[in-house]
Amino acid sequence: MKNLVIIFILIISVFFVSCKKKEQKTSNDKVYTFNSLKVDHDSIAQGNVTNITADVSGDAVTYSWSASAGDIFNSGKTILFGASTCCTGNHTITCTVKDKGDHSESKSVVVKVY
After folding, report:
1. How confident is the model at residue 102 (pLDDT cuts 50, 70, 90)?
2. What is the pLDDT of residues 7-24, one digit of tens each?
3. Alpha-carbon gap, residue 51 to 16, rounded angstroms
4. Could you tell me the strand order of the sheet in which 49-58 lies?
């Protein structure tokens, strides 16, 4: 019986020693490069639309878009900006790119609405 207890203790000891928690590597480096925003037409009439594309190299990013006026259609890397019929002037469209490490970067373009 004593031998069984010793064997049991040895097995349990080996189990706990071999089950070390692996260190998770975290990176403080962002995994993408936000090169630019490209707009098909930087001047459009009221009620018209233009494509805007985020030029991003890298993986696992999300895109968030906003506009000072007008509408944004679609989501992701390329959106469609719609100039509303009520507002002329310069409208700023901003894209924020964020990776899974919570690094983010924003760029903006201006579209003139006439």
Report:
1. confident
2. 767 677 666 666 555 555
3. 58
4. 32-39, 49-58, 78-82, 71-73
Cβ within 8 Å of residue 88, ≥6 positions away: 46, 113, 114
* Domain membership of residue 90 as a residue range: 32-113
Most distant CA pair in the chain, distance: 93
pLDDT of residue 83: 95
- The pTM score is 0.72
Amino acid type, 12: I
pLDDT over 70 (residue 73): yes
Backbone angles phi, psi at 20, to 5 degrees: -75, 145
In this structure, what DSSP letter does residue 20 have?
Answer: P
Q: Which residue is it, tokens 């696992």?
A: 60
C-alpha to C-alpha distance for 114 and 44, rounded to whole angstroms:
6
Q: Residue 76 sits in a domain of what CATH number?
A: 2.60.40.10
